[in-house]
Amino acid sequence: MKHLVGGLLVAGLVVVAIEALAQSASPPSISPAPNPPAPISPSTSPPASPSTPAVQTITAPAAPVNPSRRFVCRAASQKYQGQERADQMQLCVEQARLDCLRQAIDQKVVGPQRRDFVQNCVGE
Description:
Blueprint: H1 2-25, H2 69-76, H3 82-106, H4 112-122
Helix pairs in contact: 2-3, 3-4
């Protein structure tokens, strides 16, 4: 059972790494807005009444939150005990930092922005 959970965690890490690499390799696609709303002139706008406040409703579902790489490393090192657990955690975090640094280099991020990019990518 331990090996099954460990294998699933490793597979999940590989999928996350491949997805991050695929996103960093492909240029972002910009799609035009389907139909921009027409501007409302002051003469055609409906009168605002104090009894009907303007409330914005959002019908789209919330975007899923990706766990930080540090959290993924913590979850992956749960199956170990003692010093081995600390070593596995440190190795995983350093591998994640290296992956983030590679991604920053591929995107040609330099200077202090690179440091911030890597920290945000790892989840520090």
